[in-house]
Fold this protein.
Amino acid sequence: MLLHRRIYQFFIIYLLAVAFLFLIKYGLDLSDYVIPGPVDVWHTGTREFSRYFSDVMNTMMVAVIGQVISIFLALLVGITGRQATWIGSFTKAAAYNVQAYPIVALAPIIFILLGDGIISRLLIAAMICYFPLLLSVIGIMSEPISDIEHFYRVTGRMRWQLEVKIRAFENMNKLTTVVAGSATLAMAGTIVAEFIAANAGIGYSIRIALFQSDLAKILIALFLIGITLSVYQGLLEVIGYLIEKGWAAK
Amino acid sequence: MKKIQMQKAFPVILLTIMLIVSFPGSRIGTAEAAEKVSYRLKWLFNMSVAGDIYADVHQFFARQGLKVTIKEGGPERDAIRELELGRAQFGVASADQVIRAVSKGATVVVIAQLFQVNPLQWMYRTDRMKIERLGDLKGHTLGVTFGGNDEAILKTLLAKANLTENDVTLFSVRYDYTPFFKKKVNFWPVYRNTQAVFLGQKLRQAGEDFAFFNPADHGVRFVANSVVTSKTMLEKRPDTVRKFTVALLRGWQAAMDQANAQKTIKTLQQYDRDSTLETLQEQLDITRRLIHPKASIPVGEIDVAAWKQTEKIMLDQRQIPGPVNVERYLKAIPEY
């Protein structure tokens, strides 16, 4: 149900955006060089679909791994940072500072040090999507669920693992939304990395299309990125729902 | 009563007059004022735009009754799109951009060709490679920007040498020069008059010998930057186009004149604050050879044969779906 909704919502948004572009094109009588016509977009789509689809899958794979890394990292930092101790505040300060630098300034250094292979793309994807995750995890983990936690505290059975579990369970909806939302950032991060320096993925193909001033290719790339991301986000939401249901059953 | 009404109406009348006077098409109150036009460059302010800046700073445009706003270019800027959208009246575009635009129905006209020799060449280490003929490229790792002009040029060169992509290793070039510095790749695409000067200085400091591979020496003449305007502009304001072209080419000619070298460098330094004097001097010497290689050819001359070859290269590599007869979109430069 969630998946289905995500996909048709994406179709509506994409079609509205493309229709708006065509409206401008025909309203201002612009050539296909400025905005491609529907026939041009269709031909480009049929010609480039399989190649671009494979590029998007390549990017998606890196984005998913990058997101998983950042989820673990955010959980680790968030759980450590939830404590009102010196280590907790230091961890938070360090995590915030790293995020203060724009990725486009850091990316060239990353590529020089790590080359233009998969590791650089992965690192940049993780760096871009981890911070919003971290903020949410810290927010969720720092907020006690008093009515439940109180029982375990007075009976002396409270452990940090239990505390984390209680807070995660009580905020599962929020966590699922944040994780699904961060998928967009992971994908955007990977595309930025590919655009700057990688030799693979849809970001790299978009860069080549820009070199060739080919907006039709870019529209096809955007469609494939959008639909893939919608499916992925829908799946994440379904997984979140299933986990919540499973925990509740226990 | 009437006086009060007049007082109330005064701001409205004033605003209306101001609007009429400030409207681009208005002639009221601007009989003596300069005609305003925008000029979108292809790239950032550097030696490749020295003549454009010179024409502006030294009043060549003003003397033709024009007030030109020069807009810096960049990787995401496209002068041809801006012409069509009415954001600029003139611009600089590469030949492949022009041919691609024409093949997609854009009504663009080339009014001058800035570079007679394409600055896009390859820098290579002479102790690692010896290139006397095209066949010598075989077996080497060659740097190329996929999707860029250099890809089209290199593939044409390989085809001319009866080499396939399996006979060489193509290395994808990006902003980072590390693979070239580390000698992982010894054949690297550069803009001869800008990047190549920085890189050359570094290699000389490291005691390395290098040379340049110019595709034109092997029969491949792919046109670089040219000045463009829209067909509408040419039809509706031919006098403005003529004045602009004359001013621009006079500016370029003066900027490339050996006698004005110091003046050109001083002018460019107002815009390019990062390059050292030594770098700018070297860049100017090289730019002069690319813009005005022979005294017999005027600055800005359109090399029709090279344009036709550029179109053929793009057609052979299926970058355009069919012939566009690019010569129909080239306008001979006026006498200046």
